[in-house]
Amino acid sequence: GAAAAARAPRVTAPMTQSVVLQVGQCGNQIGCRFWDLALREHAAVNKKGIYDEALSSFFRNVDTRNGGDGADIHKGKIFSLKARALLIDMEEGVVNEILQGPLRDVFDSKQLITDVSGSGNNWAVGHKLYGCQYREHIVEKLRRTAEHCDCLQCFFVIHSMGGGTGSGLGTFVLNVLEDEFPEVYRFVTSVYPSGEDDVITSPYNSVLAMKELNEHADCVLPIENESLFSIVSKIHQMTNSGKLGSTVKQNSLLTSSAGSIKTEQEKPFDAMNNIVANLLLNLTSSARFEGSLNMDLNEISMNLVPFPRLHYLVSSLTPLYTLADVNVPSRRLDQMFSDAFSKDHQLIQADPKHSLYLACALLVRGNVQVSDLRRNIERLKPSLHFVSWNQEGWKTGLCSVPPVGHSHSLLALANNTCVKPTFTELKDRFMKLYKKKAHLHHYLHVDGMEQSCFSEAISSLSDLIEEYNQLDATKGAPRTDPSRLKIAM
Amino acid sequence: MSIVTVQLGQCGNQIGYEVFNAICSDFHSTHGLCSKKENESYQEACKERFFSEEKTGVPVARAVLVDMEPKVISQTLSMAARSGHWKYDHQSHFCQKQGSGNNWANGYSVHGPRYREVIMNLVQKEAEKCDRLSGFFTVMSMAGGTGSGMGAFVTQCLRDAFPTSFILNQVIWPYGTGEVIVQNYNSVLTLSHLYQSSDALLVHENDAIHKICAQLMNIKKISFRDVNQVIAHQLGSVFQPTYSSEGASQYSKSPLGDLMESLVPHPEFKMLGLRNIPQMSENSLAYSTFTWPGLIKHLRQMLIANAKMEEGIDWQVRPPLPGHPVPPKASPNKALHFNTSIANLVVLRGKDVQSVDLGGFRDPALYTSWLNPQEAFNIWKTPRAFNKYEKSASLVSNSQFLLKLMDNIVGKAWNMFASKAYVHQYTKFGIEEEDFLDCFTTLEQVISSYASL
Hints:
By secondary structure, chain A is an alpha/beta fold. Chain A is 42% helix and 16% strand.
């Protein structure tokens, strides 16, 4: 008779781990949503309560029965999941709230670096003053966190650009990461200020931070609040209007915390922050879960960054919600692909369709096969402009596990010149202040800050904009392929 | 004699699994259509070639599984074990935690040397399990980082460690439109390096197989699994046991050696294409009958017109008539009408194979002038039917089949290289611009050689 099926052999090499560094008020609020939704996602997939490789990428499993800092348990039952994270803020409000809230058990006190007085929306205070003061602390805690990782692959920094802590200290931490862990990828999720930002000096802070991102980040995912807000409004409109509203699955909303630990009233920014949290979950899904065409984090950097400094990726997430009916005709699937390229779904104010693509990645989750992917690429290609040397610049991934509440989803990452207006507007706002030398003294009196910091920063930004300009100039130009090598026969 | 399979990267492991599955399934087939004695001979030969015995009686695939990240190997091992009919040796795998990031240089220059010893030890162990080793069959894609880069490195190591064994690389040509953005660089680097150490490269194109799935198999939502299963069927149709010469009384002992001898007379020409007919969904099989003359006629025209499958063949294409001047060869980037061969191998399986007339394949007009047409064409056959197909014919061809593909991929890679895009990702791991140029030169040479046939 047939031999009994052998037990599945244990493949002993666990997967890679990532560490999240949430810096400043915005960074910590987004980070908080990320951890909440990550737990929700894993709970939906991992029914047996076993600590598996997918969980280990973001969580440690710690035996806290005897109190204190228990040992890491690498397999078997889940005891207590601890986030692989550092929470950094120079004010205590947000972090304290997290530690008193429903996620308190996910973090331990050794993962925090806090101070009391804040950075006063001053990049120099965050970067030079607190940076210097807390460098050793930061390095020590990073080392500890890294030691708990079998194979640390990636750091995710989450921060805003317009303030003082996220912007200044956040980019300082980025430098430290490069110095201390040069082999580990640095993905940065940066929230850019809008024109109407109520922090007057946000252009200064952002431009000073941009220089650091240019030089020390592997990939940056820029986010703009206006875009998040529009998406929130759109979802609100769709779910509260007419007959559609009742059939929407609540936990499928890109903005929803439904099903997560958080039980109290949702704060106004929660919906927006959930979008960013979902971005990070989708970005890392293929590294955590299986699929027919895996897309690891190191592949994202490899395929989407053709030149070192052009590493700003415009992201879009679809669908925004799922309707309750399970039957999904492929027409709806195709709609998902179309939406990914519409300017309404981008997480910054940008229109990739009318600008130039250097490269594009599509990470699909759920019940989607390679033929669906190919059909949609063929269909959408003619309406997109790709740079002449990368006409087939598509990177694709298929992950079998869909997000909570969905049967399938799509994350698109575009290296596209449509990111340029975000930078040129930033530059303009900067120059408006800088020409008048407005508020400069607040910065210059911080130890280590000089005028040259400003001139170098704006110069770095200008150079970046120029690189995009040169690429844009090639758009629509007649294509002349370089002649091939001639072989003597 | 036995073949040791080395499965490299996600693609290599996913396909390798389907190949062993197809072989095992064929092994157990009750539709052999031949005598019991014949069937037993076939099974014996198949087993020796691909599987070793274990105490439990479950055949163990002669394979080494290599990947730089663990998810795929984990799945592959457990899927095989669940089948109950065969499995892998659970010691015979190597994986790490972090993949190669689609970076050929990372696979070749970093992972390769770092893990060389461990991997070669695993290969050595598998080789020692064989009474006699025919050679190695590697399965890899060109587009990624591990299969391609590390695959190229491992192939080199195989050549160094086993100088007298045959090495056949099964190479997957990626979809023309992106799976991986840097796939053209990775492909150029892989092909040029494999050319140095491999005996032959057997190519399957994702685009072509995808079309077969869509048009012949009628699959609506095509998955990678579907594509891989077609590839596995095609490979099985060549590498399952056959009689490789007229009047042979035993199944061939040396499939890889026979293949190389038949098809690779000159080291400059190593690119092999594979066609298999008929191909259809299992449901249609029961209702279809084919005649050998019909199958052979189609197969021959597929060769001449470089058709990837038995539908949509261009019947207008003809070989040049004897005595008439050979039409001037267009440059590779214009559509080549007539596909010139160096050598061809046809494999026939199933009912009435003895009566098949293959004269059409011996036509000297099909072949380049510098080989004796009698030597240029070989036949393997067996009356034992394969995988429920009453009649099955495969063609392995060393011809201009892959010329346009190669030219295309080199062209795109060159175009990208001229702008220096992504090059910094490779120099980071020790592959310099010079190395790229060497690879381009090697491949332009190969293209030129095939174009001038």
